[in-house]
Amino acid sequence: MRAVIVGAGPTGLYTAIALARRGHQVTVIDRDPGPEGGQWWNRKGVMQFHHPHAFRQQVADALIAEMPEVWQGMLAAGAVPISMPGQPGVPAGLLSRRVTFERVLRAAAEIEPRVWLRTGHVDEVCSERGRATGVMVGGHRVDADLVIHAGGRGGRLTRALRAPGEGGDCGIAYVSRQYKMLPDAADGPVNVPFGVLMMYPGYVVAVFIHDNRILSVLIARASTDRQLAALRTQAAFDAAARAVPALAAWTDPGRSRPLTRVLPGGRLYNGYQGQLNDAGRVALDGLIYAGDSVCTTNPTLGRGVATSLLQARQLISLLAEHGRDLTSCSLAFDSWCGAQIRPWFTDHVYWDADVIRRWSGQDVDLTRPLPSDLIMAAAQADPEIAKVVGPYVAMRALPNSLDPVQARARALYATGWRPPMPPGPTRDELADLVTAASSRGYPADDGAVSAVATPPLPSSGR
User: Fold this and answer.
1) Which of 129, 298, 448, 450 has its CA 20 to 30 A from that of 114?
2) CATH (residue range 172-266)
3) Are 393 and 57 within 8 A, CB to CB?
4) pLDDT surpassing 90 at residue 4
5) Distance CA 437, CA 230 (A)
6) Where are the domains of the chain?
7) Using 50, 70 and 90 to split pLDDT, how confident is the model at 160?
8) pTM score, two decimals?
């Protein structure tokens, strides 16, 4: 079967390699031409490309199961596997920048027989008698029996062929900055597998450990918090990094040096959109959506690439099962995504809305079900809750797995217990620091970054 995949991100590249290894001919089309040498890759259309990423166990499992040489290529390029507690050698994820991850995956796709990478903008999906027959790229037609739209949530390519999506702006914005660890410098403190995650009343900070001794520091705030918006200036960001102990430990000049300017991030969105049209039918036989074009979530917990590759693996399996009956494949995939992917979207929508409500100064609302973050926090004080929270945090159990401990967590909060605030400034204290630093005349960063060299990729065994 001839397949065209729109989008050369993790979903598109992974799916292309997997389908090619099953005998299909696959053309991947992306408007970005790919990296050039070892210099900075200004990835077109991917705002979050140089912002921090966490690659979960689902990503490691997908690579090892389908393309183990790509997994080994990641390690050879400097990515670091996360081990399962008490299970050395069992990968629980991967510490890597998105640029390193995509470089290795793209390099594998470029040498994969029956995969062709093409640069261009897909103008439309071609169809005849209700069936997809290919795409138009820059006025030229690329024929196909199957078109997979893995081009992200923002594309207008096939908007009229699906029912409107759910979700929207989650009310959170962020900035980040990359640092390089100095030779022989010891790592800073960690409290989660990928580095540091600390939630304060009014803001969130994180440290993401990456490949080749590079790390990212992230600070997130409410989108409406205009005072903390000044964190996009270098002076304000540096002041905040010094004031938050967990960030200060990693960004201490004796431990690391800045590798980029402060990178402003866009607003964060939660979105879900199925395969079907307004009438509840597959609008075009042979057109299937996957990855971010189905689901996007607040990236705080690194669920984006994980849910995308879970989708990719399921779609590959369903294509093998349904063969040329692509409508039944779309229906089966839509049903599976509704059961296995949509709950993560719903979880984030409820969680984020409650975080924004609490950031505005309101207390825990015990008249409604607790959001997942409060149940996770309650695990600090109740080992029985912790037993249930673990599989959910690892995405080995869906969000409804927390339902059995809802009452137990609510009873804990009803006693007056609240999650202890991590060491560091309150939101108001941070705002004062940011205002003072940004008023000294430092200009806002314009989003430009230094040219960061990336180690050459190892040769593939294929």
Assistant:
1) 129
2) 3.30.70
3) no
4) yes
5) 9
6) 2-168+268-344, 172-266
7) confident
8) 0.93
Task: Let me know if the fold of 2-168+268-344 is the same as that of 172-266.
Answer: no
- φ, ψ (nearest 5 deg) of residue 370: -70, 140
Run of H or E including 15: helix 10-20
CA distance 400 to 402: 5
3-state secondary structure 228-291: HHHHHEHHHHHHHHHHCHHHHHHHCCCCEEECCCCEECCCCEEEECCCCCCCCCCCCECEEECH
CB 389 within 8 A of CB 372: no
Residue 441: predicted pLDDT: 53
Tokens 């050369």 locate to: 8
Mean pLDDT over 352-372 rounds to: 96
Question: If you ran DSSP here, which 8-state letter would residue 285 be given?
Answer: B
The angle subtended at Cα 397 by Cα 393 and Cα 400, nearest 5°, is: 100
Amino acid symbol at 231: L
Confidence of residue 155 (pLDDT cuts 50, 70, 90): low
Rounded to a whole number of angstroms, the distance between the first and last alpha carbons of the chain is 23
- Nearest 10 degrees: CA dihedral of 128, 132, 137, 141? -50
pLDDT confidence tier of residue 182, bands split at 50, 70 and 90 = very high
Residue type, 254: G
- The answer to whether the beta carbons of residues 394 and 167 sit under 8 Å apart is no
- How large is the average pLDDT for residues 102-124? 96
Q: Would you say domain 2-168+268-344 falls under CATH 3.40.50.20?
A: no
Q: Are 98 and 48 in contact (CB under 8 A)?
A: yes
The answer to whether residue 326 scores a pLDDT higher than 90 is yes
Neighbours of 164 (CB within 10 A): 7
